[in-house]
Amino acid sequence: MFGKIYLAADRLVQKHKLHALVDVSIFAVITFVFHELWWSFYGWLESFNFIIGSADWLAGKVYLISLWINRSILGLEILTSEPNTMWFSNGAFVAIDEGCSGLKQFYQVAVLFILFPGPWFHKLWYIPFGFFTMFLANVFRIVCLSLVALWIPQHWDFVHEWVLRPFFYVIIFFLWVLWVEKFRRGGKLITAGIS
Description:
- Helix content is 72%, strand content 5%.
- It is mostly helical.
- It is elongated and about 65 Å long.
């Protein structure tokens, strides 16, 4: 029975060239299910020292690099306090805790690319590349939040919740599009009609 349904669906996809819709659907299902499972089991996951230790370690690295960028490149005057807190001249602060570490996004990238179809040879390096990309995105996010806290603190909550938190999903989606176009289908990356 399921074999017949699969064959009928496959013929429909082939006939109407719905491969992109199928890929987007798989991406959406994996992303949604991962998100729901993560938050449903987060209390249990927190009981593992490895999870908390990894989150704390990542939070510390994001903090140190963001602090260095804020001080050395942007020239901001910042006081610091433990754990991982930057205080700005207007009294605002940014604290990077385990929830800001980016660990959830690391796992999300890993699960997405493990489950999404494609050659395992490329997955072995693409998943760590995804981790690195998410780490850099998180540093960028913290630096942006630092500037918001300093210059427009009244908009901090909005920017944190509705701009920079969804930013992670934009980066994950971009990584996924690159995967689908370059490795899943094995063809050349096509951008704006140029191959």
